[in-house]
Design brief:
Mean pLDDT: 91
Largest sheet: 8 strands, mixed
Number of helices: 1
Low-confidence stretches: 1-19
CATH class: Mainly Beta
CATH topology: Neuraminidase
Shape: globular
Radius of gyration: 19 Å
Number of strands: 22
Helix content: under 10%
Strand content: over 45%
Length: 250
Amino acid sequence: MKRLILSVAAALMCLAACSAPGPRHYTVKVVREYPHDTKAYTQGLFFEGGELYESTGQTGQSSFRKVDLVTGKVLRKLDFSRKYFGEGSVIFNGKMYMLTWTNKVAFVYDAATLEYQKTYSYPREGWGLTTDGKSLIASDGSSNIYFLDGEFHLQRSIKVTMNGRPVRLLNELEWIDGRIWANVYTTDMILIINPDSGSVEGVVDCTGLLPDKLRGPQTDVLNGIAVLDGRIFLTGKNWPKLYEVELKSK
């Protein structure tokens, strides 16, 4: 009887998942384009106080930068030791947080001065990082997203699913209008994720955002989401352009 009840329960859960509305699908329209440093292997991208910030990766090339949006000029740059592979970054409660990929450490700096404050042990791979204003929100390349306090203590986690199935390779993150936006590494897809349930509510197809004629030998994948006053900005690793875009329903 117990086995029968479990089977019925599983069937009902499957039915509920199958009958639930799927995510909305979007494409992007370029509103404006800006220059972007082709040597910037973009790992994190965000605005704070109207200013654009970017963290970059690659061993020996990892950095945190303040960038002029219009010209693409690097206004301020913090270089990391070549033993570190920089990843996602964010400003939270007056501090700049930056993850590393496999070094198992995360760094904290004063957001105003970029003076070093502390290094934390970090128990998983560092990928994307953002904030909802209450917690740090991090990805690790799996289907999980982690909510952390300012000392990297785990508060809770969610598993990201689309149509009931886990979605892996979640990378750079951004908090937009109460939802988590996440690049899916190696794809031209961005997911819009419910932060409570982990369910994917929207899929943004960015195929063709960077034209083939602008791609070079070092051009890598889409990775970089930022928002300023409701305007959405996208770029990629070693891309020559940063784009302001609008969503269009498919």
